[in-house]
């Protein structure tokens, strides 16, 4: 009889601890699965090669104190601005590597936001290195431009060469008003400024949304608070759900108002700013406003260099919802749940002891 009791006890001990061990293994697997997903953004973010197979990619190139962003949607390349002249060669090299890796031979759509050298300084180099199919700019001209015989001419010496290069390129040139362009894999929506009385060329920057594969990317150039107000008027009661926001004007406090951010619900934000820039961009107020608006992560080129984000391969929207920025908290939670599992006492089951005069073992 004693041997029988021992066997019953032994069986239950084994049963109880087997369940606990299985539970612990399942919990650990779930934990590490979530942890891998959670860190996938930063892994992708530093490694171009891991992005190349994704159908929707976003890049913000390091071009000093300037801006150049690339969206790859399927086999279509959309370039927004070309950065500074100083970084043009480097930009073209990185652009070339990314396009080649994606089997893309030309830039399908080039958007030039406004005639400032930090956004169009690299345009000549880009136009000389790559075939460009379509070039877009706002229909509204800067104070230094005028239409002559259907052509835009400028008195801005820095911009003359860019305009010449644009007209020399055998591309379709669009002076755009607010419109939607269906490019197959994606829809590009131009929310261009319409007020013709702008004195600040930054205000010419079109706010552009690119919708593809169920995701939305918003590019803003150096759009100002006034440009944002026009955008909000057109948007009306609607709201957007923006997955990646390229923050306007290098993170300057002159844009990214709370009213604007609350209507577009950005999930991730990217800021293009130069190392040791004299403006001290990005402004702390903008960073605070972005986090207050619910942004999960802000990436800045002056800290990271050229940034690449993969939008589809890591299902980052779901994964990032679980981001814990405090590793100590994650570790504490892990061990807390481990001890909780191990401390669970399983209820005794009488059926093991029915043959022992109904006494519990
Ligand atoms: Zn700028």
Per-chain topology:
Elements: H1 2-46, E1 56-60, E2 69-73, E3 76-80, H2 88-101, E4 107-111, H3 117-120, H4 123-129, E5 132-138, E6 145-148, E7 151-154, H5 157-168, E8 172-176, E9 179-182, E10 186-191, E11 207-212, E12 215-219, H6 225-235, E13 244-246, H7 258-264, E14 268-271, H8 284-292, E15 297-300, H9 301-304, E16 307-310, H10 316-320, H11 327-343
Parallel strand pairs: 3-4, 4-5, 5-8, 12-13, 13-14, 14-15
Antiparallel strand pairs: 1-2, 1-16, 2-3, 6-7, 9-10, 10-11, 11-12
Helix pairs in contact: 1-11, 2-4, 4-5
This protein binds zinc ion (ZN).
What does this structure look like?
The chain has 361 residues and is an alpha/beta fold. It has two domains: 1-51 and 315-361, no CATH class; 55-312, Ribonuclease Z/Hydroxyacylglutathione hydrolase-like (Metallo-beta-lactamase, Chain A, 4-Layer Sandwich), CATH 3.60.15. 37% of the residues lie in helices and 21% in strands. The chain has helices at 2-46, 88-101, 117-120, 123-129, 157-168, 225-235, 258-264, 284-292, 301-304, 316-320, 327-343; strands at residues 56-60, 69-73, 76-80, 107-111, 132-138, 145-148, 151-154, 172-176, 179-182, 186-191, 207-212, 215-219, 244-246, 268-271, 297-300, 307-310. Helix 1 (2-46) packs antiparallel against helix 11. It binds zinc ion. Zinc ion binds next to helix 3.
Highest CATH level, the class of the largest domain: Alpha Beta
Run of helices and strands: HEEEHEHHEEEHEEEEEHEHEHEHEHH
Mean pLDDT: 82
Count the strands?
Answer: 16
Total helices: the number is 11
> Span from first to last CA?
12 Å
Bound molecules: zinc ion
